[in-house]
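Human: If only I could read backbone structure tokens as easily as an amino acid sequence. Take your time, and here it is.
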Amino acid sequence: MDVRTLRSGEREALLELLDGWEIGDGWRGRDFFRRYLELDPTYADENVWVAVEDGRLECCVQIFPRQLRIAGRPVPTGGIGSVFSRPERRGEGLGARVLARAEAAMAERGMELALLFAGPVAWYEGLGWSAWPRRRLLLARTESAPAVARRGEPFDAARDLAAVRALHERCDAGREGCVIRDDALWHASLRVAGNPREDFLVARAADRLVAYARAIVLNGLFVLSEYAWQPGGADALAGLVVELMAARDPDPLARDAGREGDLRHHAVAGAAGLDAELAEALARRGVGTQEVEDPTTVLRCLDAEALARRVGTRLAPGESPEALMARLAPPERFGFWIADRF
């Protein structure tokens, strides 16, 4: 068994392997993952590690180079995705071997953190990763919710992107774990974040953009994948959220005609982040909120000393990498947006 990076000319073979993944949401595996090969600006063959036997790819792991905001500083991070083994090869340790090579490569390339989102959290914990059960919001419209007034406008990149970026950066400045997007990552987010489509609304006041909200269907759930608002714009954002949650017939995000009309009655927010003013504005519109725990985030500190230096602190005597991360970016403040998923 040869464990190495992907070679030129093997991309279709990689997609053939990933086609065995039952993605859901109406996707075929090769089509879902092709987007991350063709549209992610950080894609490179050297960022894909594979196990190969007799010329056939048996297992793969992809690295997504990112910068996460930790303690106000951009931290080089390796996102991990596309972790997959052929069903008949599972239980042989291939995934652990390939993931270990990817981790070593990230450390060699100066990445100080590694991050992934997965169902089998216990499997990753057994390999030295740490579960990072962050908080998310569950929103539900009450039966007595008032009728929705349509005031939001569909996002238009040529008109709105600069203002949306400014809102995003302002709101995320104090949030740990957010991806810092450059031009290329912003344009990739607009092309990849949908599943395959997204609803993206903006709100204006006096010709100034004051709030935006993005929504997708993910794993059969209606998800607010990202939102931001200006000071004093909580009411405008609440209005956008309520518009996005209003039933539509037909629903442009629904893949199953039987679900049209009720798909949006409940929503999961991509990250906790409601202040009292926004919660009150939603409540006035008949939307209740509660925090829930999302257990799918898994994190690993690859170089604790380098991370501590980068953010201007020191490791305490005997402090573990996990304890350092808990001090810098505790799960309850970890605000990674689903729009940046990999």
Notes: The two ends are 27 Å apart (CA to CA). The chain has ten helices and 14 strands. The chain has two domains: 2-133+295-340, 136-293. The CA atoms of residues 230 and 297 lie 28 Å apart.
